[in-house]
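Section 4.2 – Deliverable D4.2 (structural model, holo form)

The reporting period included a commitment to supply a predicted holo structure for the target in complex with zinc ion. Inputs used:
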Amino acid sequence: MSADQFTSWSRRGFATASAASCLALLGDRAFAHRPASQLGSDRLVLLGTRGGPAITGYRPTPSSNLIVYKGVPYVIDAGYGASLKLIEAGIPLRALRYIFITHHHSDHNLDLGPMLYNAWASGLTGPVDVFGPKGLDALLRAYWESNIFDIETRIADEGRPDLRRLVIAHEFGEGLVFARGDVKVTSLRVFHPPVTESYALRFELGSKVVVFSGDTAYFPPLATFAKNADYLVHEVVYPAALGTLLSNRPNVDRARLKASILSHHTTPENVGRIAAKAGAKAVVLNHFVPADDKALPPETWERGVRSTYAGKIIVGQDLMTLPL
Ligand SMILES: [Zn+2]
Ligand SMILES: [Zn+2]
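Output (structure tokens):
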């Protein structure tokens, strides 16, 4: 971590303790290795590819992704349904180790507490480090509080370890988030009004690079951040199809929701522009808005990206697995 990054964090109001606690991560305890797992080959798995929090079925579910690298699972976002999708992807929940949240919209964190809880219920023994923007600590504390009866009953009655002590929350700003061995994770604050703390994440895993845009409007600095990515996992919106989505939301001000969606998501053409400028080897579309409109087959999404990007285009879907 450079001095500049520390300065940058301080400027943004992060307590020194926050940066210090991230450095403390480099110590042995937080990164104690689990035995080599049977989690399979190095890969990227799209667990949930729905953009937005509405639930209409098991596929697609809200945003969540998984990287398995050298037998260690890294979960990126935890939208509703992520716990079950992890199991379907071959990851026993007690194998959880690192979780990263890009921002605190519920389609990215609603399953965070339940995922940790389910892991505990399924035999979790070691620490889980959770990284997220400001608000993460409060989110977890409130979740523990809402389940205090069950947690404390099971500790006393079943002899379980205290879940609240197994989970270590790390709030991050822009810059270095995580470094251990040949894995490094950095963050870039993207443009997602009205959410001010929304981040893209860049995972460097040995010689491989995977970048997650998180939720963002067209944001040219992301191209630099995603330079030479093997996979640029980018969110996407199809504005012409928003009418159907809006007609299915009777409890919102539709004009406001439409304006909100358009203010903080990226069209296929602009995803292609970012991917092209980044020199990404492949762009992986995820976080589709709308997500399950039958009038939008994969070719429709691909066509827009193709108009601005000549590389490989992968139209994501839940549980799609890509080799690393
Ligand atoms: Zn979202
Ligand atoms: Zn969002």
